C-alpha cells in the first residue's frame, strides 16, 4: 500500500482547484460522458446475433419455467381448496 506525503485525500479537490458552479458541474459531467462514450466499442454483427440469440433463448426458457410453476401452483390450489363447486 502506498502513502502520499502531500496529505491529499483521494476524492477531494486540492487547494488549487476551485469549487464549480451548477453549470460548471453539468459541463464537466457532459465532457466526462462524451469521453467515456468514445471508449465504447460496438459489437460486430456476429457478436450481436449471438447476444440476441442468447437473450431470446433465456426469455423462452423463463417463460416455460414460469408457466410450469403457475400451472403447478394452480393445481395445488385446486387440490387444496377445491374447484369452487359447492353441493346444492
From TrEMBL:
<comment type="similarity">
    <text>Belongs to the SecE/SEC61-gamma family.</text>
</comment>
<dbReference type="InterPro" id="IPR001901">
    <property type="entry name" value="Translocase_SecE/Sec61-g"/>
</dbReference>
<keyword id="KW-0811">Translocation</keyword>
<dbReference type="GO" id="GO:0065002">
    <property type="term" value="P:intracellular protein transmembrane transport"/>
</dbReference>
<comment type="subunit">
    <text>Component of the Sec protein translocase complex. Heterotrimer consisting of SecY, SecE and SecG subunits. The heterotrimers can form oligomers, although 1 heterotrimer is thought to be able to translocate proteins. Interacts with the ribosome. Interacts with SecDF, and other proteins may be involved. Interacts with SecA.</text>
</comment>
<keyword id="KW-0812">Transmembrane</keyword>
<dbReference type="InterPro" id="IPR005807">
    <property type="entry name" value="SecE_bac"/>
</dbReference>
<dbReference type="GO" id="GO:0006605">
    <property type="term" value="P:protein targeting"/>
</dbReference>
<dbReference type="InterPro" id="IPR038379">
    <property type="entry name" value="SecE_sf"/>
</dbReference>
<protein>
    <recommendedName>
        <fullName>Protein translocase subunit SecE</fullName>
    </recommendedName>
</protein>
<keyword id="KW-0813">Transport</keyword>
<keyword id="KW-0653">Protein transport</keyword>
<dbReference type="GO" id="GO:0043952">
    <property type="term" value="P:protein transport by the Sec complex"/>
</dbReference>
<dbReference type="GO" id="GO:0008320">
    <property type="term" value="F:protein transmembrane transporter activity"/>
</dbReference>
<dbReference type="GO" id="GO:0009306">
    <property type="term" value="P:protein secretion"/>
</dbReference>
<keyword id="KW-1133">Transmembrane helix</keyword>
<dbReference type="GO" id="GO:0005886">
    <property type="term" value="C:plasma membrane"/>
</dbReference>
<keyword id="KW-1003">Cell membrane</keyword>
<keyword id="KW-0472">Membrane</keyword>
<feature type="transmembrane region" description="Helical">
    <location>
        <begin position="48"/>
        <end position="69"/>
    </location>
</feature>
<comment type="function">
    <text>Essential subunit of the Sec protein translocation channel SecYEG. Clamps together the 2 halves of SecY. May contact the channel plug during translocation.</text>
</comment>
<dbReference type="Pfam" id="PF00584">
    <property type="entry name" value="SecE"/>
</dbReference>
Amino acid at each position: 500500500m502506498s502513502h502520499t506525503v502531500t496529505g491529499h485525500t483521494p476524492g477531494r479537490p486540492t487547494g488549487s482547484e476551485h469549487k464549480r458552479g451548477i453549470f460548471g458541474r453539468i459541463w464537466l459531467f457532459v465532457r466526462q460522458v462524451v469521453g467515456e462514450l468514445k471508449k465504447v466499442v460496438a459489437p460486430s454483427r456476429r457478436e450481436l446475433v449471438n447476444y440476441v440469440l442468447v437473450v431470446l433463448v433465456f426469455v423462452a426458457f423463463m417463460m416455460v419455467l414460469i408457466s410450469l410453476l403457475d400451472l403447478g401452483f394452480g393445481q395445488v390450489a385446486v387440490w387444496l381448496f377445491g374447484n369452487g363447486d359447492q353441493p346444492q
